[in-house]
Amino acid sequence: MAATYPLRVDARLDLPLSRWRWAVKWVLVLPHYVVLAFLWLAFTISSGFALVAIVATGRYPPARIAADAPPWPTAEELDTTGMSDDAVFFAAQRLS
What we know:
It is a single chain. By secondary structure, the chain is mostly helical. The chain is built from two helices and no strands. The longest helix is centred in the middle third of the chain and has 37 residues, at 21-57. 0% of the residues are buried.
């Protein structure tokens, strides 16, 4: 008994491919692969340095965002930047 699949896809090739299109695509994709390789190398090296620094010092870097800081702009920030209170799309309200 043949297996039945939940999806069937039929496809056809619209136009014949150009003789040189594959070469142009590879020439265009090679610089992207080079940049991605350097980014992965930089990520790996910096992660290694961070791991060694954490293990050697026994300390983890402190958080950069204060836990009690509001996640929305305060009225003073809106006044100093010249923005109006209309720019704030939500307001903090105490639920009772």
